[in-house]
Amino acid sequence: MSRRKTRPRPTTGPAAPSAPAVTAASPCPCGRDAAYGACCGRFHDGTAGAAPTAELLMRSRYSAFVARDEGYLLRTWAPETRPTEVDFDPSLRWTGLEIRETTDGTAFHQRGTVTFVARYVHDGEPGALHERSRFTRHDGAWVYVDGEFLA
Ligand SMILES: [Zn+2]
């Protein structure tokens, strides 16, 4: 998942709300039936090392967008496509992730794809990002390469 580029950032509007509060005991934003601290949070803070599969990396990156954890997003971005910073859109709120399909991306692979739908509300309008993301390994750990938008 990358930042969305299709809509211009509004130049006026309410002040940016603070990042949504995600605590260790919160339900994990990625949608698995687990608390954030036992799910994506353990990858964000490094206590569980790197995500072992492309799908878990995808989930943890989605949760990092929700928690606005820029450091984690940049660390898990392939060097060749990594931006210098992550542009969190203050008028966009992620509301749910659904994994549709995965290919490869396990402990036995060097590459993988994850197809997902990420739902959001942007300026009060619900929307969905349908994307097939590509992942590879960098220094042994899964990293996000890029994504293809699907209709
Ligand atoms: Zn999670």
TrEMBL record:
Spans through the membrane: none
Region annotation (Disordered) ranges: 1-24
Bias (Low complexity): 9-24
InterPro entries: NTF2-like_dom_sf, YchJ-like, YchJ-like_M
Chain ranges of the YchJ-like middle NTF2-like domain: 53-147
Family as reported in the entry's similarity comment: Belongs to the UPF0225 family.
Protein name: UPF0225 protein GCM10022244_36250
Taxonomic placement: Bacteria, Bacillati, Actinomycetota, Actinomycetes, Kitasatosporales
